[in-house]
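Contributing: when you submit paired examples, paste them exactly as shown. First protein:
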Amino acid sequence: MSNTERGRLAEFIVAMAPGITEGISTSWDQYDLLSKEGIRIEVKTSAYLQSWNQQNLSKISFSIQPTYGWNSITNEYDAEQKRQSDVYVFCVLKHIDQATLNPLDLSRWEFYVLSTAVLNKTVPGQKTILLNKLFNIGVKKCEYAALNKTIKHEAAH
C-alpha cells in the first residue's frame, strides 16, 4: 500500500496491457514506459487507502509536474522543464475496505488515460491535479481490457 510500491505495481499492470516486457520502472527515466509503437507513457497512481492509519479516505490526486528530462547516455538534464511523455495513465486503487484490499485484483483498479498535449494546453505548469479536474478536461476512463487501445487513441491526439 505504500506509494512507492503501489506505483511500481501500477507501472507493471499498465505495461502488460500493450505487452511491454522491457524497461519497466527504470529509475530516473524521462517517462515510465515505452510502447512498441514508440508511445512514451507516464503512469500515475492514487488510492483512497494508504499504508498509514487514516481518519478519512484520501482525496484522489496525481502529480503532473513538468520536469527536466535526464538523458542516461549523456548523463545530462534537459535545459527546459516539460512533461516528458505522450500519454498519462492515471490508475486509481479504488477499494475502500482495508480488511479486503488486494491490489493484485484488477477489479480494484480504475484506469484513466489522457494525452499529455491536453494537460499542456489546459493546465500548463500545474504540479498536481485532482481526479474531478481530470474529468473536466476530458480524461478517458477505460476498462483494463481497453487500456492499450485507449493509450494508442490518446497518443494520436
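Second protein:
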Amino acid sequence: MQVFATFDHSAYLELAIRKLEQDGFSDIFAVPLDSRQEEPKLFDTIHRSDGISLINKGLFLAVIFSVIGASRGFILEWGPIYWGLIGAGGGFLLGFFTDLIIIKAKNRKKKLRKSKQSEVVLIVDCKDEDGSKVEKILWNYTAIGVAKVK
C-alpha cells in the first residue's frame, strides 16, 4: 500500500518523516513541488481561461455613458449619435483600465504574500495493515491532504 500526503515545506514535515522512521517505515519518498516562476498571462485565449474578465466594467460603463452622452447630445453641437458613441468609447476605456489596475494590484499583493515555499508530496510504502497508522501520523503532523492507494 502507498500513502500519499501533501505538506507545506515546514518543520512539521521533518517531524512527520522522523516519526515514521522511528515507527519502522523505511520506504519514504518526499518530492518538493516547484513554484511558478513565470507571470500568469493577463489575457485569456479560447482554450484557457482563468475566470477574470477585463471587459465587464467596461461594457457596463459604456452603456451608462452612451445613454448620458446621447441624452446630452440633443443640446450639444455634434448631436446624440456622436456623443453616444463618444460616451460608449470613454466608458468602455474607463472600465477596462479600472479593471486592469485592480487586477494588477491584486496580483502584486498575491506575489508579496507568496513568499513561502511550495508544497511537498510525501509517499510512504507500507503494508496494508499499517496504512491507518501511517495516515494517523501524517494527520497529526498537519498534512494538507492524505490519500491511500492499494
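If you have annotations for the second protein, write them as plain sentences, like these:
The longest strand covers residues 2-8.
The chain has a mean pLDDT of 86.
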